[in-house]
Amino acid sequence: MKEYKIAVVGLGAVGREMLATLERSTLPISEVVPLVRRNEGEVIEFRGQMFASKLIEKGSFKDIDIALFSAGEEASLILAPMAIEEGAVVIDNSNAFRMNADVPLVVPEVNPADAQRHNGLIANPNCSTIQMVVALKPIHDRFKIKRIVVSTYQAVSGTGYQAIDELKQQMGAFINEKEIPCNVYPHQISLNVLPHIDKFMDNGYTKEEMKMFNETKKIMGDASIQVTATTVRVPVIRCHSEAVNIETEKPMPDVAEIKEIMAQAPGVVLADDVENNIYPLALDCAGKYEVFVGRIRKDYTIENGLNMWVVSDNLLKGAALNAVQIAELLVEKDWVKPSSDKKISFAQ
Amino acid sequence: MKEYKIAVVGLGAVGREMLATLERSTLPISEVVPLVRRNEGEVIEFRGQMFASKLIEKGSFKDIDIALFSAGEEASLILAPMAIEEGAVVIDNSNAFRMNADVPLVVPEVNPADAQRHNGLIANPNCSTIQMVVALKPIHDRFKIKRIVVSTYQAVSGTGYQAIDELKQQMGAFINEKEIPCNVYPHQISLNVLPHIDKFMDNGYTKEEMKMFNETKKIMGDASIQVTATTVRVPVIRCHSEAVNIETEKPMPDVAEIKEIMAQAPGVVLADDVENNIYPLALDCAGKYEVFVGRIRKDYTIENGLNMWVVSDNLLKGAALNAVQIAELLVEKDWVKPSSDKKISFAQ
Questions:
Q1: Per-residue pLDDT tens digits for A153-186
Q2: In degrees, to the nearest 5, what angle opens at C-alpha A72 toward C-alphas A66 and A76?
Q3: Which parts of chain A have pLDDT scores under 50?
Q4: CATH for B4-124+319-333?
Q5: Does B285 participate in catalysis according to the annotation?
Q6: Where would a tag sit more exposed on chain A, N or C end, judged by fewer CB atoms within 10 A?
C-alpha cells in the first residue's frame, strides 16, 4: 500500500492539533515533516518516531505528497504556490484562498465531491462556518434553508496560544487583585465578551462575519442561502458555541423527527435532553471530533423556523481535524493527484 | 413638598442596588425601610441616616408609600398582595405578576403612560427584555418592528451573589489547579457558556426566552411583534450583552441616520465607532445607567433588516434602576395613588 509523506506547515495551536490528529488517523503515513518559518529543530514524536522541525526553503515540498498549512494567511499566500509548484497537494487552513474559484472549500460531511476537483490546493473553511454547515447540511438537503441568523460564542484558542495565555493571565490577575494585562485583544476578554473577531469591513461587519456569509454559500453549493452573523469572542479556552436560527423553504416536521435526522447525520452528535440539563457545552466538547447539536426547537415566529445550539472544538473539527479528514478523503478516493493540469489563478 | 416613605423588600444583589440607586435619585424620601424575611437587624446607611432592616410582618407596609420588591417570585406572590392591602404601591421586580392583565409592565422610556393605570402594583420587566426594548423603541416607533431574533450573553449577577461567588471561586480553582466547585448552575460557568437560563418549558424554550417573547409585546403595546430568543449565561459578572437582529415593516434609512436616531433616544448611549474598536462592552457598562448600543449594521439578507449589539447593567437598568425610575415617574406625575378602586385579580 502506498504510504504518504505529509508536511505540517506551522506549529501553532492548530499545527500541533494537526500532528496529533494525523497520529490518531488511519492514514498510511511514511513520514511527517514539520516545517516552520523560524525556530527550527524542535523534535516532534510521531507514532514512535522522532522528526525535527525544519525551516522552509526552496525544495522543502519536493517529495511531499500532502502539505497541511496552518501558518497564517501571509505564509500561505507566499508558500502554498511554491509547495504546489514542487508537487505537493496543499490543504490550507488560512483565509487566503477560500473564495478562490479555482480552489475547492471542503467539509467532508457536506461537499466531499468538491475535493475531487482540486488543482493542487484545497481550502479548509473557517472554524465557525464548519461546525454550522455540518449541523445544517441534513436540514438543508431535506427542507432547503433560505436564511440563517447566527450569533457565535467563540473560544480564545481560535486566536492562538498567546490568547489562551492572556485569558489565563487575566484570570490570575483578577483573582490576585493585580493589574490585568491586555495585549492580544483590544479589550480585556476575561469577565467580558467582545463583539469583534477579525477586522472590520466597510459594511460594518467583521471579516469573521462575512466568512460565515460567503463560505456557507460555497460549501453548501447554494448561493441562495442567506446568512447574517454576529461573531463574538467569549472567555472560553476551547470550542465555539453558536445560536443558530434558520428559516427553510419547505415545512419542517416536528422536533422529534428533526432530532432523529440530526442523530443520524454524519459527524453530528445530538445532545438534547433539556429535562436532564443536557445540551452541548464548550467544556464537554473540548477534544471531541464531532459537532454537537442541542436546544432544537421550533421558531414559532415564522412559518418554517428552527432554533438550535451548535458546539464543536474549534481546533479540531473547526481546523485541524477537518484538514486531516480532507487528506483522508483524498487518499481514500485516490484523489491526491490534481484533477487537471489547470493552474490556479492566484490573482483573484 | 411631600416626602415619601419607601420600603425595599429583599437585600440581595438587586435590593442593595435599589438602595444605592434610591440614594442617588432626586426622589424626596423621608425614610427608607429595608424589609427582609430573615436575618433582620442589618444597619443600612442611607443619605447619612441609619436604618436597620426589619422582619416583614402584618402591618409592615401600613405607612409605606412605595414598596420596591426584590425578594424573589415566591415572596412577591405572598407579600405583594399584603403590601397593597396595607396601602403601599408595589413595584415588583419578580416574574410573579408581569403578565397579569391588571398589572402594568413598565419601562419608563418605552411605555410611561401605562404606569398611570396601576391598581397598586406595577411590574418591573425582566433584565434581558428591558435593555432590548429601550434600544428598539425608537426603531419600532418609526419603522414598526415585525420580528426580533435575539441571542443573549448574560452575566452571572442576574442569578445573585452566590453565582458571582461561584464564578470567582471557579476562576481561582482553575488558576490554582484545584477541583472546581459547581453548586449554583447545573454546569461549570467559568470558561464555559450555558444555553440555559431559568427553567425549561414544554415547548423547548426556557422561561427566560419566553419572557423576552411575552414581555416585549406587552411593554411595546404591540402583540404583533414576534420575538425568538436564545438566552445564554456567560462568565461575566455584570452587564448583559445581546446580539439583536430585527426586521421592520417599513424601510429603514441608512445606518448613519439610524445611529443618529439611537444617539437621540432616551436612555440610550450610542457606542459605535468600530474603526477605533468602540462598541458596547460588559466591563465598560457596569455601574452605568444607560443602555449602550453599537455594531449597528444593515442585515442585507432581508429587505428591511438590521443588526445591533446592546449592552446594559443587568442590576441597574435591568432591575434596580428601572424600578426606581418607575417610582420617580409615579412621584413626578402624581400617579402614586392607584388610578381606580379596581382590585387586582391575582388568580390569573
A1: 999 999 999 999 999 999 999 999 999 999 999 9
A2: 50
A3: none
A4: 3.40.50.720
A5: no
A6: N
Cβ contact (<8 Å) for A241 and B232? yes
- Closest alpha carbon to B242 in B97, B126, B162, B92: B126
ipTM over 0.95: yes
Whether residue A127 lies in the annotated active site: yes
Q: Using a CB-CB distance cutoff of 8 angstroms, which residues of chain A are in contact with residue B295?
A: 195, 204, 230
- Predicted confidence (pLDDT) at residue B33 exceeds the cutoff of 90: yes
How far is CA B124 from its chain centroid? 6
* Res. B339: pLDDT tops 90: no
Residue tagged active-site, from B127, B140, B239, B285? B127
Q: What is the pLDDT of residue A186?
A: 98
Q: What is the DSSP string of B100-140?
A: -TTS-B--TTT-HHHHHT-SSEEE---HHHHHHHHHHHHHH
Catalytic annotation, pick one of A118, A140, A239, A240: A240
pLDDT of residue B340: 84
* Closest Cβ opposite residue A283 in set B151, B188, B241: B188
Return the percentage of chain B with pLDDT > 90, whole number: 98
Q: Give contacts of A200 with chain B, Cβ < 8 Å.
A: 274-275
Pairwise CB contact (< 8 Å): A192 & B168: no
Amino acid symbol at B161: Y
Q: In this structure, what C-alpha cell is assigned to residue B189? A: 460557568
* B295:A230 CB<8 A: yes
Residue B1's pLDDT band, with cuts at 50, 70 and 90, is confident
Indicate which residue of B118, B140, B239, B240 is catalytic. Answer: B240
- Give me the architecture of the A128-314 domain, per CATH: 2-Layer Sandwich (3.30)
Task: Answer yes or no: do B300 and A228 touch at CB < 8 A.
Answer: yes
Do A193 and B241 contact (CB within 8 A), yes or no?
Answer: yes
Domain coordinates in residue numbering, chain B: 4-124+319-333, 128-314
Number of other residues whose CB lies within 10 A of the CB of residue A273: 11
Whether the pLDDT of residue B347 is over 90: the answer is no
